[in-house]
């Protein structure tokens, strides 16, 4: 006589419930990836909620809609990049080394936060957002303006022109970074060296084989 074998249904693992903060971070990560991949117009709340495994009302609850999610993603990336640039500017005293480290800070950010930079270099369609490439350049320029003003004063130049030169300098570095985002050649350090070569020496004094002096 054989014993009857009772087959019991397997217990399904319970889904780990996220806290409100964890869910918000998850939605930001999902939104960041989608905005980088498809842009603002190509991203929908339906896609965000589907990738996150939640219903659309959850997204609306945290951000109020796609515009709110986009604005927070952009603000975070701006804060991260500007923090890196500010740290680089404060880590040296010689103006050439400051320029070298600022250029490397931007290229480092592009290399490690490619999705974030892709979002920043697109013009923001959200009117109240601080995002957008022009805004990025303006905010970064404000970080270096006082440094240029100090150098101008020490060399007898009019300090009133420092804001304009700050825009020129940061714009050159940022646009070169946008180009390097796609080509990734030459190497990061070489790009930074050539940027500094032009900014520091000018066209009339370009070095044939520029290199970073502050490393």
TrEMBL record:
<feature type="DNA-binding region" description="H-T-H motif">
    <location>
        <begin position="44"/>
        <end position="63"/>
    </location>
</feature>
<dbReference type="InterPro" id="IPR009057">
    <property type="entry name" value="Homeodomain-like_sf"/>
</dbReference>
<keyword id="KW-0238">DNA-binding</keyword>
<keyword id="KW-0805">Transcription regulation</keyword>
<dbReference type="Pfam" id="PF00440">
    <property type="entry name" value="TetR_N"/>
</dbReference>
<dbReference type="GO" id="GO:0045892">
    <property type="term" value="P:negative regulation of DNA-templated transcription"/>
</dbReference>
<dbReference type="GO" id="GO:0000976">
    <property type="term" value="F:transcription cis-regulatory region binding"/>
</dbReference>
<dbReference type="InterPro" id="IPR023772">
    <property type="entry name" value="DNA-bd_HTH_TetR-type_CS"/>
</dbReference>
<dbReference type="InterPro" id="IPR045823">
    <property type="entry name" value="TetR_C_32"/>
</dbReference>
<protein>
    <submittedName>
        <fullName>AcrR family transcriptional regulator</fullName>
    </submittedName>
</protein>
<dbReference type="Pfam" id="PF19344">
    <property type="entry name" value="TetR_C_32"/>
</dbReference>
<keyword id="KW-0804">Transcription</keyword>
<dbReference type="InterPro" id="IPR050109">
    <property type="entry name" value="HTH-type_TetR-like_transc_reg"/>
</dbReference>
<feature type="domain" description="HTH tetR-type">
    <location>
        <begin position="21"/>
        <end position="81"/>
    </location>
</feature>
<dbReference type="GO" id="GO:0003700">
    <property type="term" value="F:DNA-binding transcription factor activity"/>
</dbReference>
<dbReference type="InterPro" id="IPR036271">
    <property type="entry name" value="Tet_transcr_reg_TetR-rel_C_sf"/>
</dbReference>
<dbReference type="InterPro" id="IPR001647">
    <property type="entry name" value="HTH_TetR"/>
</dbReference>
């Amino acid at each position: 006589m054989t014993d009857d074998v009772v087959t019991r249904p397997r217990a399904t693992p319970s889904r780990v419930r996220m806290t409100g903060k964890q869910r918000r971070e998850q939605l930001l990560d999902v939104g960041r990836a989608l905005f980088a991949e498809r842009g603002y117009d190509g991203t929908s709340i339906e896609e965000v909620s589907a990738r996150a495994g939640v219903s659309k009302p959850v997204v609306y609850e945290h951000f109020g809609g796609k515009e709110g999610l986009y604005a927070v993603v952009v603000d975070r990336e701006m804060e991260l990049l500007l923090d890196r640039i500010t740290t680089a500017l404060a880590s040296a005293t010689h103006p050439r080394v400051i320029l070298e480290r600022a250029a490397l800070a931007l290229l480092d950010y592009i290399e490690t936060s490619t999705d974030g930079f892709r979002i920043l270099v697109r013009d923001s369609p959200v009117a109240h957002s601080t995002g957008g490439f022009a805004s990025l350049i303006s905010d970064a320029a404000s970080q270096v303006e006082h440094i240029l003003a100090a150098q101008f004063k020490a060399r007898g130049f009019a300090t009133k022109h420092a804001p304009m030169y700050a825009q020129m300098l940061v714009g050159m570095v940022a646009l070169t970074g946008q180009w390097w985002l796609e080509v990734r050649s030459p190497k990061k350090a070489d790009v930074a060296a050539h940027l500094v070569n032009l900014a520091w020496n000018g066209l009339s004094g370009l070095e044939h084989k520029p290199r970073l002096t502050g490393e």
